[in-house]
Every structure is written in C-alpha cells, then in structure tokens.
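A reminder before we start the practical. When you read a complex entry, don't treat the lines as separate problems. The point of joint prediction is that each chain is placed relative to the others, so the output describes one connected object in space. Small molecules and nucleic acid strands, if listed, are placed in the same frame. In the example below there are three entries. Take a minute to note the order of the lines before looking further.
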Amino acid sequence: MEAATVAAKPIARRRGDAVRDFLSRYGLILFLLVLPVYFGVRDISQGKGLVPLANLLVQGVSNGAIWALIAVGYTLVYGIIELINFAHGDNFMIGTFVAFTLYGVLGLGLSTGASGLVLGLLVCLVVSMLACATTNVMIERVAYRPLRNAPKLAPLITAVGFSFILQNVGILWYGSSQFSVPDLIHSQHVLFTVAGVSVHNSDVLAVAVTVPLVVLLTQFINRSRIGKAMRATAQDPEAARLMGINVDTTISFTFLLGGLMAGAASLIYTLYQTTLWYFSGFQAGLIAFTAAVMGGIGNLQGAVLGGLIIGCIQQIADNKIGAQWTAAVVFAYLVMIMVFRPQGLLGEETREAG
Amino acid sequence: MSAQDSGVRPAPAAAGAGADGSILDASGVSKAFGGLVAVSDVDFSIPRRSIVSIIGPNGAGKTTFFNVLTGLYKPTTGTIVFGGRDVTGARPDKITSLGIARTFQNIRLFATMSALENVLVGQHARMRAGLLGSILRPPWVGSEERRVREHGRELLAYVGLEPVAFDELAVNLSYGDQRRVEIARALASEPQLLLLDEPTAGMNPQESATLTDFMETLRDDRGLTILLIEHDMQVVMNVSERITVLDHGEKIAEGLPEDVRRDRRVVEAYLGTQGGS
Amino acid sequence: MSRLGALRESSRANLIVAVVAIGLAALVPFFFAPLSSFMNNAVLALAYVVMALGLNIVVGFAGLLDLGYVAFYAFGSYTVGWLASDFFAYINGGQGVHILAPKLLSSPAGIHVNFLLIAVAAIVICAIVGVLIGLPTLRLRGDYIAIVTLAFGEIIRVFAFFGDDIHLGKHALLTNGRQAISPVDQIDLPLLSQFDSAFSLRPYYWFALAMVALVLFVNFRLRDSRLGRAWIAIREDEVAAASMGVPLVKTKLLAYATGGALGGMAGAFLGTYYNSVNANQFQFGFSIFILAMVILGGLGSIWGVVIGAVALSFINTYLIPSLNDVPDKFGLDFDFTTLSFGIFGFLIVLMMVLRPEGLLPERRRRLELTEGVGAGDEQLFEVRA
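Here is the predicted structure of the whole assembly.
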C-alpha cells in the first residue's frame, strides 16, 4: 500500500483515562489508607498516641481472620466456576449453630477443664467444618450443577433462594432473636501486651486456627493432584476435561474445601463473638465477599489479605464512626472497588477492551 | 431505498476521502493483552468500493484486528481513520453509527428473537425513538416503526430468506439462513464498510459461490466496501481484489491474490519453514 | 409460532385483555366491604404488581439482576414522608409549605404537597437514584451486578434505619428511623374528597388500579419498541448488541431509571397508604419478595409478572399466616410469618429448578432457560460500555 505510514504512537489518551488509570492503580490503596491515617492523626493530635489505633488494628486482624476464611470459600468457588456462591455466608451461620449445639452435646461449659476444653473444641472444629462442607456440596449439587448451562442469572437466583432457606433453617433452629453462647475461652482475657497493645485470647485463637489452615490449604492446592486439577479447571474447564480430569468432581471438591474453611471460621466466630443470630450469615457473607473482591477474586492470598483489611476497617469504623454505620462503610468500599478496581488488589487486569 | 427517502438518520456521508480514496486507514495498530501481543504494528488501508481480504494461520490476530476496527478493543497503539474521521478508541456502537458493520465468526444472532427482530435491532442506530417516544408513540414514532419493519423485510428478502421465516425465531433457522440473517442485520445499519468474519464457514462450494456473488452485488449495486476474514482459499482468491496476510500479529504480505499466493513468507507461515505439516 | 403464541404477541389482543381485566378488577370492590381485610390485601397486591412490573424491566427485559430494588421503595416512601407530613415541622416558621394541598389551620406545619405532584417527584428522584445505582454496575458481569445492587440496598437501609441520627441543618433529621414518619397525608385528588383509610379502602384500590393500568401501558409500549428490543438484545448478547449500534451505557441506565421510577411510584403510594414511613419496611427481604414475583410469573413476561405478583401477595397475606396452625400440631413453636422469606426462597429454588421460565413465560425465556439457547454470557472481553 502506498498510504503514508504513521510511526506507531500510543493512542491519544483522553484526560479521563489518565485519572482513571491512576485511580485504578493507587485509588484503592489510598481509600484504604484514609481511615487509619485520618483517625491516627486525629488520635495523635488529641494526645492519645498510636496505641488505640494499634489496638484496633490487632483486633481488626483477628476479626479479619474470620472473614478471611469465609472469603477463601468465595474465592475458590468463583475461581473455578465463575459464580458467586450466594449461600456461603448463611452456610457459615449454620456452622455457628452446629458449633453451639455441640457445646451442649459435649457438655462444654465454663467449668470444663483445660484439656477437656481443648479436646472438645477440636471436636467442635472438625464437626463444624464437616457440616459446612456437606452443606456447600449439597448446594452445588442442587443449585449450581443442574443449571450450569443456563444463563448465569439462573444459578445465582437459585443460590439466593437457598440463602433464604438456610436463614429460615436458622430461625427454626434457634429462633429469630440473637442469643448468647458461653464464652468458653474467656475471649476478652488479655494474654499479654506489647508496647501498650493488648493481645487477647481471642486474637491468639484466631491466628492459631487461621494461619495453619491457610498454609495447609495453599500447600494442598499447589502440590496435590486434586489441587492441580482445581487450578486446571479454573483456567480452562474444557481443556481440563480433555486431559481426563473429572470436572464435576473437582468442582464439588472445591465447594467442599470452601465449606471446610467456612466451618472453621464459624467455630472461631462462636468462641470469639459469643452472640449468635440467624441473620449473621447474611452480613458475614457480604463482608467476606467484599474481602474476597478487595483481594482479587480467584486469588487465595488476596482473599486472606482482603479479610484482614476489612477486619481492620470494621474495627476502625466501629470505634471511630459508630457501629451502626460500619455496614454502610464496608459496602461503600465494595462499591468503590467495583468501580475503580474490580480486579482487586492482587488480581490481574481482566482482558478488558481499553 | 435511499436514506433520504426514509427520513432515517443517515450515516455521516464518508465525505473525507482518505489518502488514495481509501475508506479506512489503520496505521501502526497494535493490540496487547498484558504481555501477549496479538496485533503488532499493522498498517492497513481499504480502498473504497473494494473487496479485500485478510488471511493468515490460526492465531494470527485477524479477529483481534477486526475487533479493534469495530471498537470492541481499544488499540494499544496506532490510529484508525474512517471516512476522514479519527475513530481510534471509539465505542462499538458509535463506530456502527458512523458506518461500519460486521458479522461474527460464530454466528451471534439474538437467538430468541425472530429474524425480523434481529434486523430491527440492527437498525437501532438509524432510529430516533427514545424512552418517551417509545411510551407515547406519537405519529412519527409509529411511522418510524412501520418504516423499519418494511426495510427489515426488504433486507431479509434481499439476502434470500423466505418470507415464512421472517417471524421464525432465529434459533430455529437453518445454519445457512442464520448466516443470511446475520448479513441482513449488518446491512440494516446502512454501513459503508462491511466486515465479514469467516462468512463461508460451514458452507459447501456452491453456497460459497452464491455468497461471493452476493458480495460483488453489494459492492456494485450498493457501493459497499467489504473486508473479509477467510480461511477458504478458493473464496479468497476468487473474490478479493487485494489480500493482506497476517502472521503472529504482523503483516507479512499484501497485494494481488496471485502475488500473495506465491509469496514465500506466506507459504512458510501456513506450512512452516520445513515445508511439511 | 403457535397460534396462541402469535396471539399473545399481538398488541391488539393485549389491549383487549388489559381492558377486560382492568374493567373486571374495577368491579371487585363492590363485592367486599369497604374496610375488609380483603380490600386491604387487594390494595397491597396492586401496589406490588406495579413494583414487580418495574423490576421486570430491569431484570426481565434488560437482564440486569438488581437485588437492591427495595432502594426505590425506600426513596418513594420517603419522598412522601418528607413532602406530605409534618416531618419538617419547623419550615416556614411552623406555618408549613402547602402546594395544592389543603392547609389545616389546626396543624399547618410541615411540607404538604399534593400526592400527584409527589408521585411525579418520586418518579424523578427514583429515576436519578436508579442511574446512580446503575452507574457502577455498567462494566460488571451478572453476579457482580447482583452484589453491588445488593450493597446499595443495604447502604440505603442503614441510612434509613439510623437517619434519625443524621441532622440536616439545625432542626431536621434525615429520616425518623424506626420510629417512623407518621402520620402521612392521604391522597387528595381534585373533585374528589380526600382519601380516608378509616372510612373506605375503595378509593385506594381504584387509584392503585389506575397505577397498574398506567404501568401496564408503559410496559407493553416499551417491550415492542426500539428501546425494548435494545434491552432484550443486551440481555441476550451484549457484545453483539453493541456491535449493532446499541449504546450500552445509555440503554442500561435507562433500564435502571425506568424500573426505579416505577418502584418509586409504588413506594410513594405505599407510603401514603400505610400512613407511615418506617425504616423497618426497607429490608433486603423485600427485594427478594419482588424478585420472587418476577421469577414466579416469568422473567420478562408482562402478564406472567402480574399473575406472579398477585399470587405471591396473596400467599404472603393469606396462606402463610394460615399455616401457623400447623407447627402447633407438631409441637413446634414458630411463627410462619417470620419464615415467609424462607418460603419465598424455597419457591425461587423450586421454580428455577423445575420451571425456570415461570408460570406464563415470555416465549423467548422458555428457550433461553431450558435449552440454554442464547445464553450469550461467554465473553472474551469486557465490553466497553
């Protein structure tokens, strides 16, 4: 062709593009820093130092461990079938009810001796995890598998329906009001302080359960055959099928893993919060989903990171803005993530056109 | 039936001719997805009222290039000028309203709409009824609806669809008929440039010949410019006035069919440097 | 296409059915006492029909799964609460502001605007809210849209609940939280005496029926128009729609705005009908309630949604409370009404698994949902909105 060739140059960027890029890359981090920085500065100026903020962050991290575990469930499932398991949060709530029931069954109370307690709680942990895992797999079989080829609306709506069914199982089980459960590990007891920052029993518990589980899970997914099958299916289900991977089983297994994590979270929550409610799953679900998205949906480390961050945001909001507004704050973050950086902190740029 | 008669919003007359009377000029166009470069520094011009083809082995970046031209992707570098107008990075619906229409490699009809309704959607850019107009239906909206339906039927007949099939749901149509409807839908937006992505896929030689005749009719009777992606070499050689060859996202050859056919780089690209396959 | 199918598509047939149905419905109040509970439930059912038809535009036509529809109910109701009560008692030095509304010398305070004007205001406000809610969702895939709209619904609920902590200027609050804004002015139409729910529910019924007629008209007109086709095209295959010249941003926002406006109108009506605007009304379960109506009736099917709305409304007010005897017989102690949303959830699951196209399916939907046709959700790329 004779047409004059123009030297390749980057296309003219509209001014909005530069802003949007900047916001996308750093906006989220800036938004996240706003809360701690603003209140930290305010504290310092009021002569309180950074200790209150540090305390909040410690609380936030241990609280966030719960969200992290639930978020892992969301992210694993989304990674493999690209659908949000809407009933996941309510599954978690069922786990808390199971755990509490087990207190009664095992006769765990405030007077139980230390070794009996540890043993009993381990049993609770295992049973809760199994209960949630089973529920999750059942949801997959009933809601997601039969509708796999339907437009995405269908399984989503079905999962929403399931969420409500689970909530009402909760109501049937323990009624519609909040109720308290025995504080078996004396969660508010301060174990030790570091530079003025207190660490409670509950904080240690949260870390002690979450860290090993996450490490185990990561290793499992990276090393085991099923883990590889999961990653392969997440990348390309058709190719995985052609390689001889049983995609159906792999997907069910993913739901199982997600359920296990939710079950663990539910025990921590029961020991930590000592108040249970049928509606806690709905809220927990949304919060954990925000965490998963913040970290980058499909990314395991991202889910954990997101959980911890959300936990911190919650603590700061609870304390500094007012507990009744915390939910709105968290959801506002969710909206902001969706607008400015849907791939989250650790996710990759989606193959977007522009 | 001309745009003026029907009171439709006509495509901006592609008044500004590009250099050498080309209707479209793409310069230095690249498209990268993260680290993967799908299209690399391609210059491409289409002469007015011509039929040109892009060919290349699988994964050469042909459809990606199409998608850049139609606005589905924003190019990483380069500019695209259509009818003297810079459309680089414009949205797909804007590009359609300016006069570029396309079909898809895997037919993407609105499966549960009828053939006619598909074509009506194709005319979206040439209609004016908005929210209030649709609700209140003043006389001009009513006549607009009648006009686009009439036009739609004409187009469907023009591409060879039987009238009984006009109200048939697209999914119930035969493959060949679906292809026809897709073309009718593309023509519905009154384009000056028509992009066809592997239009003869799944057709036997007879059907392909009919289609190529049709393309020539479109060019001669309606003054359309046509850009094809094709794998069927018969079709390409027969109908193209010029062939461009892409491989690994780069343009490796361009010229008359008989020249391209003999070009060594093209042969290598398709068969590999060892010459075997 | 079958004869029946063709018939259902013809606008003339729809017009006749609509006229007959509405005509018959208009006669219903004469068979029931003016203050009977049936009348109350009928009025609610009609209001829910309007809501469901509004949601149908967003979810059914355009395929955008909006799980925060309660937001429009809230805004519609609060528009009435703000503009037709003595909530802002301090305005105008206690003398109140009255626009086409009677001024009671005994209690003039507050803003009092004629309901018809408020309905218009609610429509406008909710259209804007719809656009604001829709904007962040434009580049998102289906399930993300669900979550984001849900999040918005929750944010709005939080503000409704705790709006009595938010002060606007020196004297006013944002909402009255769970203490409710009450009483609310009743509808006062020219040439007719003001509605009075202590006297007769019939005027409310006919007013609601008029709203239904209007909304049906709007729906039918839209469905067979350029915009309606654009919505359905977006629902089926966004990429192809954009490539055919459908501007995605504008079209989607119009869906949110129109659906929201209708929800707001119904919300305003409910606000004045209940004579109170209480934050407790605006919970997530309500969004599911309306969604269940749309699914039961058939996503995208106008008559189906009407039937679904009426059915579910009556299930909610009649069947569920009457089931409260059952648990006693089993020695269980719970109240079915608290389970109502669980029952809707169950219904949703049942419908999606057994008959996803709904009771009276839009003919397209049946194909989409049962044979996976046109489920053009696989996208290689995010479509540039």
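Discuss with your neighbour: Chain B touches chain C through 48 residues (CB under 8 Å). What might explain this?
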